[in-house]
Amino acid sequence: MEALNERENKVLELILTSYIVSAEPVGSRTLSKLLDHRWSSATIRNVMADLEEQGFLSKPHVVAGRIPTGKAFRYYVNSLLVPRGLGQNELLVLDALFKHRYAYTEQIMEDASRVLASLGQYAGIVVEPKVNTMFFKEIEFVKLSGQTVLVLFVTSAGMVHSRLVTTEENLGQDLLQGMKQYMNERCEGVPFYALKQEIYEDMRRDKEAFAALMRKVLDALDTIVEKEDQREVYIEGTSTIIGVPEFSDIRRLRELFQAFEKKEKLLGLLDRSLEDEGIHVIIGAETGVQEMRGVSIITSIYRIGPRNRGILGVMGPVRMDYSRIIPIVDETARMVTELLSTM
To answer: Exposure pattern of 142-156 as b/e (b: 16+ CB <10 Å)?
Structure first.
């Protein structure tokens, strides 16, 4: 992206900060006041015209003033942004999250999404890690009827995935107990992506007594490991977007909420940040999703052990205050990682 000169930088920065607060086009008179009339209105208009020609500003309809484009916000994030530290209230909220005693990882993710929504004042999002990166800890079988069993897979991160299994023959409690003991001893610490192969190898050996149930366990594993779009996504605060001026158009608001409901699209978008360390920012049209062209997403990864990575962040309008929200996302990711490491 091209570099801007000193005047262009200053004018663009003032337009951005003003637009973030007001969501209104910014005119040369407003800028002249902000600059204590150091530059003439004519000079400011010329600079604004140059910025518009370069794609940093646009003029909505026939109103006076300009608004920053997605390119301007990308420049702002990359070049002008100096994230400020967390305020006292933000630190207190995060400290309260950190001091809470959790029994399940899902509770941490739910609370983290609420904290992000509360502090970020927009939608807070937490995505659980991909199952295939986790390690098998134990399996539990709950007999519901003669031929129906609830299979519970527990990961090393303490997350539980359940599937109903129906067999052709009645399953005795002794068989289920034996299978549970065998798998827990044989497979503990095996990554989920390799678990199927472990079971296949055992079926080829002398485990005929477990063969029928093993096939059902394999089917259940398929539905967990191979369908990544079924990962849990915790979203809080979507209602805050209703009051955002950019989404006063009911049609655009409906499109956005429909995009939230298409979890596979949302996951595909969020997964872009899985390989990045630190903060990842997707601005407006960079999402590649037509319905989400008016929003930006600030994300960071959190960790459960050395291999398991999840995503958390804040989703809001393109004009959200990046310098305020980036440190909130960054610190929440650090705290969630620390919380999960103690479970």
So the answer is: eeeeeeebebbbbbb
Final residue of a domain: which of 80, 113, 142? 80
Q: CA-to-CA distance for 295 and 256, rounded, in angstroms?
A: 9
- pTM score, whole prediction: 0.81
Q: Is the dihedral of CA 318, 231, 112, 257 positive or negative?
A: positive
Domain boundary (183, 198, 227) is at 227
Neighbouring-strand partners of residue 162:
152
Side-by-side strand order, sheet with 136-143: 136-143, 148-155, 160-166
258 and 168 in one domain? Answer: no
Count structural domains, the chain: 3
pLDDT in tens, 282-308: 999 998 888 888 889 999 999 887 777
Alpha-carbon gap, residue 312 to 325, rounded angstroms: 12
112 and 164 both lie in a single domain: no
Q: Which residues of 20-51 are buried (b: 16+ CB within 10 A; e: fewer)?
A: beeeebbbbebbbebeeeebeeebbeebbebb
Is residue 1 in a domain?
no
Is residue 119 domain-shared with residue 260, that is, in the same domain?
Answer: yes
CA–CA dist 180, 153 (Å, integer): 11
Domain that holds residue 55: 6-80
Summarised one tens digit per residue, pLDDT across range 163-203 is 888 877 777 788 788 888 888 888 888 888 787 777 777 66
Separation between Cα atoms, residue 238 and residue 251, nearest integer Å: 16
Structure tokens at 272: 């872009």
